[in-house]
Amino acid sequence: MRRARPGAPPRGTGGRALTSVGEGVGFDESRSVDRRDDRTTGPEPTTAKEEHTPSRLWHITLSASGVAIPLTEVRRALEQLAHDHPFLLTSRYADDHAEIRYWEEARDLHDAAAVALRLWGEHRSTAGLPPWEIVGLEVIDRETYHQRVAEGYGPSPAAPVGVHPY
Question: pTM for this structure?
Fold first, then answer.
């Protein structure tokens, strides 16, 4: 039995009213054929055609820096990030800055950059990354990356795959 004023909303609801949510597109598809309701008055719902933009590969170079931290802590954090996310190609680090290079799959440059800009902050606690700020970001498509490398001035790997000091 609940003790409350008559007409008062239940505790913890903060006066919120419950509303119903309509069936989503494809709701009936999850039901078995023999249980379909024959009382439908309209045609079956159709799904909107989505424009599908194929994803592309983007080469990301992310630079972060801040107050000096012992090299062993920086290395351990970058190794943990590489372990958690094996997409990382290479990381270089010093006691007050680091650079991460990797490939990202995204629809366009905006999506690739948005994911890259969130990487450091989202994994700061899980990987134990230093509380540094992002100070540089380069996002280039695969063709541009390969063209730069072929011409000898591109962002060729800074070091073999892995985590390395500058």
Answer: 0.64
